Amino acid sequence: MTKNPNKGNEMDDLFDHLEQYGIKWFADECYFDWVEKNLPEEVFRKVSKGFEDLDDPNLPRNIRRNFFNLIGMDRVCGPVHSMKAKQICRSGEFADSVIEKGDSVLDLGCHTGHLTTYYARRKNYISILGIDEAQDAISFAKGKAAELGIKNCSFEAIDFLSFEPLNHFDLVISTQSLYSITDLAKAAKVLRRITKDNGRIVAIEPLNSREKLNHFVSTLENHQLRLEHLSFVFYDDLGNYQGNPALVFRKNGPSKKYDLDTAFNLFHTHILSFRKILLDILKKSRG
Ligand SMILES: C[S@@+](CC[C@H](N)C(=O)[O-])C[C@H]1O[C@@H](n2cnc3c(N)ncnc32)[C@H](O)[C@@H]1O
To answer: Which DSSP string corresponds to the chain?
Structure first.
């Protein structure tokens, strides 16, 4: 493992927090040697196969759920999530910055609650519910929150698409979750129903093409969830420099026009230029 370069600044708190879940950041592919030592071979094989299957948009729901159950288990959660520790960190940092005093918050697709407990711990004036359809991940989340002594959060195993509350949440957070729900229009309907008037939805999702970003934004906008903020978060897990759009929507907010194509082009150009700079540095350092 490479030494965490963020110790000693604002990010250290989140990295330290994730370490309680066995999640560590790796600067390069030495991650795979570490993971081989830390995951039994059979589990490693199942996880690798699970990741391949996830690419299939028609993957049956139960197989998807089984996969998230598998990676929600103690000793599996840490090694698997470590491949995207910085992505989790940057997303969590952004979502945390959107939380306001007194908010009733939902962490949608919270998995093992590694970010839910972070928000709850930092902001003891909020109440936060984490939900996920993966029962084993939720059991782990409950146990870990109790172990860490965090009281202002709770967890429920439930399918978001059948989630019932009406006008309940000031803020719904989705970090890498909404994008994995195939019926996004149905999810947008639920988001609209459960959010209070003027409530917000923050979504940081791997929408890695113009088409995916446009589809995501227009689907939520079609349900009167208005985009009010667009920026990007960047991360370098396993030596791979990438980024995700960070979006904030407001229920019944004013309609603004965003040039998503131009924003995406700038984002893409930044990623490519930065990768080139990193590659040049690497080549020079190798002589
Ligand atoms: C990639 S994980 C993201 C976990 C966490 N939010 C993070 O940022 O590290 C996506 C999670 O969404 C959950 N999920 C997917 N579809 C769901 C649904 N319909 N209802 C509830 N949870 C769902 C999965 O079980 C999984 O735990």
So the answer is: -PPPTTTTSTTHHHHHHHHTTT----SSTHHHHHHHHHS-HHHHHHHHHHHHHHT-TT--HHHHHHHHHHTTSTTTHHHHHGGGHHHHHHHHHHHHHH--TT-EEEEET-TT-TTHHHHHHH-TT-EEEEEES-HHHHHHHHHHHHHHT--SEEEEE--GGG----S-EEEEEEES-GGG-S-HHHHHHHHHHHEEEEEEEEEE----SHHHHHHHHHHHHTTTEEEEEEEEEEEEETTEEEEEEEEEEEETPPP----HHHHHHHHHHHHHHHHHHHHHHHHHHT-
